[in-house]
Amino acid sequence: MRITLSNDSLTDINADLLVVGVSQSTPSKDRVIKALNKAYGGGIDKLAAAEGFEGKASQTLKFPSAGTIKAKWVVLVGTKDLNAVDAARALGHAAAKASSRQTTAAIALGKANGEAVRGATESCILGTYRYDDYKTGDRKAKGGLKQAKLVIAKTATEHRNAVKAGSAIAEGVALARDLVNMPPNDLNPVSFADISKKEAAKLGIKATIWNKKKIQAAKMNLFLAVNAGSAIEPRLIHLHYAPKGAKKKIAFVGKGLTFDAGGLCIKPGKSMADMKCDMGGGATTLGIIVAAAKMKLPIEIHALIGSTENQLGAAAYRPGDVYTSHDGKKVEIINTDAEGRLVLADVLAWTRDNVKPDLIVDHATLTGACMVALGPRRAAMYSDYQEYADAYKKAADASGEKYWQLPLDKDLRPMLNSPIADLKHIGGSYGGSITAALFLQEFVGDTPWMHFDIAGPAYLDGAHKRSPKGGTGFGVATAVRFLEKLSAKK
Fold first, then answer.
1. Which tens digit of pLDDT belongs to each residue from 44-60?
2. 267 is catalytic
3. DSSP letter assigned to residue 92
């Protein structure tokens, strides 16, 4: 979608839709609406009263202009009790959702700052998101917003930069959504690697793809154990963005299970239905480095994705097996459906020793226990490095994504003790998200590290606010904001 800036009068803008925020119960009490209401002979207030529109957040009211202004339709959006950035996001999202038959929109932002423009840009682009690649003929969606003009009192460089940043982030999020939504017969470890390589090539990002032989050579036996039951080879995807003058090096690691049947500890059919989404952490990891490269952030980024299926073939790994990890720890397998942490363990250890980053950040749809604790729309955050955790929380607040920091409770670490090996890969019945994080911590050594369990918000059963049903691209926006702030530090 094309996003432009304008400071034209609202009554003179040619567009299919004119989208205006209303924070008052009576629309004409808002200064912006006053001129429109006058053009309508006071009709907007009467229409709002008749339709019960009171400017409350999430309320919208759409009506034809009937020639009173140049725009064909007007959409009022409730912004009562919203801050300026959230209000701008609401306007952008409403413009996208109100445009089933309209292709152009003008969004009134008034004296907006760069953050508000960025929020409106992101929401406008992502509000039009559809995944209909597998629909044909008349079933494929038609129409929708193609062009949006953000109307600001006075445009400046800050606003132009905000449009670029918002567009880059939205494109990274949309890429992650596409990958999560893609059916597993088309998105497997090999095709995931191919897509990642193509996206990297567009931006000059170095891409290194390891096949099964190279993974074997690196002695990533936990990773290979998960893959053993699948007919499709695994892939380790390593993307490297290295701008000149970068002073920090950050590694993002993503779980890339393109389908998880649970292995021999097979999932129930209902639980297996959406397991194409188990590569959500890998999709987020790819979305992050793509968005950061488009924004030309002055920070070195490594993105590593361990990708495989977890299937039930004749060679599938078993409960009771013991495998030696990349860094030499011997791990007893308890439940083959706790596979993601095994893949991540080897990739984290390799990253620690070979990339040697200032910080490792991993994203993974790791545990159902996290969803039990926090629900489906909030991610769990784990880190002993509070300065990084606090910076991430601020980035999350700015992006509109929800996280909650849970403890790396060392009192639960004995739950991972094994009677026959160095450790087992799951704990007991309680604290499952915490013990999963404690297991991963065994493989990062002294490298600063943050773990995000995104099992809930990476894939939703139904649309919620600005997130669509299916893949959401959760984590991309927050990570990029975190990188922006980190790269700006001297």
1. 999 999 999 999 998 99
2. yes
3. H
